[in-house]
Amino acid sequence: MSWQAYTDNLLATGKLDKAAIYSRAGDSLWAASGGLNLGAQEIGKIAPGFDNPAELQSTGLYLQSQKYMLIKADDRSLYGRHEAEGAVIVRTKQTILVAHYPAGVQAGEATKIVEQLADYLISVQY
């Protein structure tokens, strides 16, 4: 399966409206759906944010110039919230999955979908 198929499948769930896959270092975009394309500065702050979330906690998480309040940060997952919308970002062995869910979708529904894809990629050494 191509990387593009993974992001397309995330959107096909109906729970996410934008998704992208970046290299773990955040230096290259592998696939994007729904028009999600982060600026170099945005992904450049996200990639190290898994290991040291202090900056993201103090300044917020930015996706496409929109600020999200960081509500979860650990070495695997970053979750952000802006009003009724949210972002789910999960790091695997070789990738960073970035997904956005719109108003009307429960955070738990969106996070489960992205975390399951991350589990699968980790299981196949990605």
Please tell me about this protein's structure.
It is found in: Cytoplasm, Cytoskeleton. Keywords: Actin-binding, Cytoplasm, Cytoskeleton. It comes from Lachancea mirantina. The protein has 126 residues and is α+β, with helices and mostly antiparallel strands. It has a single domain (3-123), classed as Beta-Lactamase (2-Layer Sandwich). It has four helices and seven strands. The chain has a seven-stranded antiparallel beta sheet with strand order 2-1-7-6-5-4-3, sandwiched between helices. A hairpin with a 3-residue loop joins β4 and β5 (77-82). It is globular. The mean pLDDT is 96.
Helix vs. strand class: alpha+beta
Low-confidence stretches: none
SSE order in H/E notation?
HEEHHEEEEEH
Number of helices: 4
The top-level CATH class is Alpha Beta
Give the overall silhouette.
globular
The percent range for helix content is 25-40%
The CATH topology label is: Beta-Lactamase
CATH superfamily: Dynein light chain 2a, cytoplasmic
**What is the name of the CATH architecture?**
2-Layer Sandwich
Task: Characterize the main sheet.
Answer: 7 strands, antiparallel
How many beta-strand runs? 7
Strand order of the largest sheet: 2-1-7-6-5-4-3
Question: How much strand?
Answer: 25-35%
| Rg over CA atoms | 13 Å
| Integer tally of domains | 1
Mean pLDDT: 96
The rounded distance between the terminal residues' Cα atoms is 13 Å
Topology of this protein?
Elements lengths: L2 H10 L5 E6 L5 E5 L6 H10 L4 H6 L1 E3 L2 E8 L3 E6 L2 E7 L3 E7 L5 H17 L3
Antiparallel strand pairs: 1-2, 1-7, 3-4, 4-5, 5-6, 6-7
InterPro entries: PFN, PFN_euk, PFN_sf, Profilin_CS
Keywords: Actin-binding, Cytoplasm, Cytoskeleton
Protein name: Profilin
